[in-house]
Write a structure and sequence with these properties.
By secondary structure, the protein is of the alpha+beta class. It has four helices and seven strands; from the N terminus they run βααβββαβαββ. It has one domain: 3-Layer(aba) Sandwich (Aminopeptidase), CATH 3.40.630. It has a seven-stranded mixed β-sheet, sandwiched between helices.
Length: about 170
């Protein structure tokens, strides 16, 4: 049974190792997130989101098997797009860095994380959830669409790990 909770500060190394495992596995996969070890998610970023209680982990029998960040931060390029839902920055929840350990792929864990993010946003009276996915990451695109997110646009955005690359923008109105 998957238990989803905020990460504890003493779990930084375990969270970092989890992301390293995911990134290594995705390098050999047909579809990729574009993430690179210690570039995205960067160690400083992981420490920051863990300390702010924005990092959520999924655990099974005490083992960390998944992680995601849920907060209000978004890429500045989001401002270049005319989102269909009017919302102030503090009414927008954003999902980042959602991933599952390769030993637990295809078990519905990512779906459970997305549903947890939706529940968190609803509990906090958010208007909308937004996110971006590296263009061509079909498993992620399918996941979000299956969970009710609407694909809105392909937008070039800059991230440290990918440089200027096309990302798919998604939105779920709450």
């Amino acid at each position: 049974m998957l238990n989803i909770r905020t990460a504890n500060e003493d779990e930084y190394q375990a969270v970092r190792a989890l992301y390293h495992s995911m990134i290594r596995a995705m390098q050999k996969a047909e579809y990729t997130s574009g993430w690179e070890i210690d570039i995205y998610p960067a160690p400083e970023y992981l420490q920051e989101v863990i300390s702010k209680k924005e990092m959520y982990v999924g655990e099974i029998d005490g083992e960390l098997v998944a992680a995601m960040v849920v907060n209000h931060d978004f890429n500045e390029s989001y401002n270049d797009f005319d989102w269909p839902t009017e919302a102030a920055a503090d009414e927008i929840t954003v999902i980042h860095a959602l991933g599952v350990h390769p030993d637990y792929f295809h078990r519905g864990i990512a779906k459970q994380l997305v549903r947890k993010a939706v529940a968190i946003a609803r509990e906090n009276n958010q208007k909308v959830i937004r996110l971006d996915v590296l263009a061509g990451n079909l498993p992620a695109e399918r996941l979000y669409e299956a969970e009710g997110f609407r694909h809105l646009h392909t937008l070039p955005m800059f991230y440290e790990d990918t440089g200027w690359t096309d990302y798919e923008l998604y939105e779920l109105v709450l």
